[in-house]
């Protein structure tokens, strides 16, 4: 042994700043449940959100056969009855459109009242207009008014972000509003929508999305991919814009790499091919949605957008099937890892964390009831 104590101390001192950076920038997965979807409803139609479950069940009754394996029927129907929407977003942006200030102010008041008048989903938020110059003041006005009316926790979705300056401005705005409303520091958080290629690859050649996370100063809770805005901005013809287009896969791969280990969660976008109309149209829409949801899950995007009640059956069916199909193998691999058995697969600690995280997600969303481990055991491994 040739190294002395002061050699160890010198290296610790040399890497202290980088150690602090790693701890702050890459804290690991955020604790707690992640919703499997976000439902966007225009602000002037938000009053009907409590009917989404019954509407989804009605579509199932009107267009047999069921769009999922029979083994999942009871579980999916129970979900549609008890918690059809996990994450609700009151939309004041594209889905709502441009109105005069009096109209949007009235919509803010009506939407807040509708949410507060009875049960609501476990996760709630609003999407304001973008911080681009034409809509900036309206975005601030809507957020300010919402805070004056809605005392419950919520998240803000910031659309059409194109660079870190907008994110840094949002951080300053959150600080100002926290002071004005007597909220705790860090109480206001926001999601960033990736809807423009400039948010993925900057003019200087850097991966902008990584800079967006840094600029958020710990306030960014999620990155949401905007399927159609992004595809259109990239020049993809309307007929070919979809969640599985190569343009979308490239963007989401960069987003995924930038967010890894940061605690910022990912959400895929939506499909605008709705399961409505004739039996054939409904079944084709269900088949497409089921395939796209399953595809996103397999690629590590555990959340997505839903735009219509008829998409809820396949959202939950695809999600539940994803976890039901893999639970036995995942539990066995994790058990063998903990007991130091290879079983033909030599797993490492990182894989054990992924296995535990997979099982936890299955429990959180209602796909699984038991997995052979307690929540405490699984949480300790993640």
Structure description:
It contains 13 helices and eight strands. The protein has an eight-stranded parallel beta sheet, covered by helices on one side. It has helices at 5-25, 52-62, 73-82, 101-116, 136-149, 164-181, 208-215, 227-233, 246-259, 279-298, 312-338, 349-364, 375-381, and strands at 37-42, 87-91, 123-127, 155-158, 190-194, 220-225, 265-267, 304-306. It starts with a helix and ends with a helix. The chain has one domain (30-325): TIM Barrel (Alpha-Beta Barrel). Helix 7 (208-215) links the parallel strand 5 (190-194) and strand 6. By secondary structure, it is α/β, with parallel strands linked by helices.
Notable traits:
382 residues; alpha/beta; TIM Barrel; 8-stranded parallel sheet; 13 helices; 49% helix; globular; Pyrv/PenolPyrv_kinase-like_dom; lyase activity; lyase; DUF6986
The CATH architecture comes to Alpha-Beta Barrel
Which structural class matches the secondary elements? alpha/beta
Overall mean pLDDT stands at 96
Count of discrete alpha- or pi-helical segments spanning 4 or more residues: 13
Examine the coordinates and then state which fold CATH places here, giving the name of the CATH topology. TIM Barrel
Strand proportion, as a percent range, falls in 5-15%
Per-chain topology:
Layout: H1 5-25, E1 37-42, H2 52-62, H3 73-82, E2 87-91, H4 101-116, E3 123-127, H5 136-149, E4 155-158, H6 164-181, E5 190-194, H7 208-215, E6 220-225, H8 227-233, H9 246-259, E7 265-267, H10 279-298, E8 304-306, H11 312-338, H12 349-364, H13 375-381
Parallel strand pairs: 1-2, 1-8, 2-3, 3-4, 4-5, 5-6, 6-7
Helix pairs in contact: 2-3, 3-11, 4-5, 6-7, 10-11, 11-12, 12-13
